[in-house]
Amino acid sequence: MRRIIICITTTLLGLCPAALSHAQEKNSRSDTFAAAPAGNASAKAATATADSVAQPLTINQRRERRGLTDRHTLFVPKGQWIFGGTASYSTHTNDNYRLLIVDQINSRGYTFQISPMIAYSLRDNMAVGARFIYSRTLLKLDNARLKFGDDESGIELAAKDFYTLRHTYTPALIWRQYIPLGRNKRFALFNETSLSAGASQSKFAKDSPVKGTYQTGFEIGVGISPGIVAFATNNMAVEVNVGVMGINYSHVKQVHNQVHEGDLKTSMMNFKVNIFSVGLSMSFYL
């Protein structure tokens, strides 16, 4: 009996090293197979990083990185029509009015301006369209006096019977880009870039007998007007914008008393906020 136990023990001891070596080999193979996918993933990530460094991002990828293509930032969907515009009218009447050093002002006049706009959204948050601007200004000055010094040794300048009427017609192509504020889709910033080309007509008359001047003008320009839009209802919005940059060129031809001719050419470029170009308009998004 003792010999049988010794033989069984010896046999087991002889088999254990082989089993242990077989288990270690099996574990090493499983570790190798498990590490292979991780190594492949690292290699793919390194390749993708190298490709992104080597190749610049496209414009769509840059827009996606800034979040402009996120559906949560959609403000004006593709295919939407935009109708809107502004209108203003003002009058004045002066009866023996005094302004600083100018007194005895007797005048009347008005200014009327209308600017309809239509646009179509070609892409989400981007629209192109057209705008037309018409304005009419009238001023009739019966009398105005500018006086320096006393009655005996002073200098006095006077203007009377002055009349001017001016019309302007300006069509423009516009491009708009919207940037929503938050995700409530009620407020958004926008930038309007316009390319305009217009004409003007003016008449001046003064004194008695009348001496008159007639002039025509042509003007082209590029302008950038950022602003903010807020929806008051589901389809109606109120917009406020202001001009911050513009490039303009104008050419004016003038004829005085149908005899003397004049010519004026001007060009201007500005990169500042123009408070006189602040506009308030109403638009409908359909």
Brief summary:
This protein has helices at 2-54, 59-66, and strands at 81-99, 102-123, 126-148, 155-180, 187-206, 211-231, 236-243, 245-256, 260-270, 274-285.
What does this structure look like?
The chain is α+β, with helices and mostly antiparallel strands and 286 residues long. It has two domains: 54 residues; 211 residues, Porin, CATH 2.40.160.20. 21% of the residues lie in helices and 61% in strands. Strands 1-2-3-4-5-6-7-10 form an eight-stranded antiparallel β-barrel. Strand 4 and strand 5 form a beta hairpin. The longest helix is centred in the first third of the chain and has 53 residues. The chain is elongated and about 80 Å long. The N and C termini lie far apart (103 Å). The N terminus is likely disordered.
Topology:
Elements lengths: L1 H53 L4 H8 L14 E19 L2 E22 L2 E23 L6 E26 L6 E20 L4 E21 L4 E8 L1 E12 L3 E11 L3 E12 L1
Antiparallel strand pairs: 1-2, 1-10, 2-3, 3-4, 4-5, 5-6, 6-7, 6-8, 7-10, 8-9
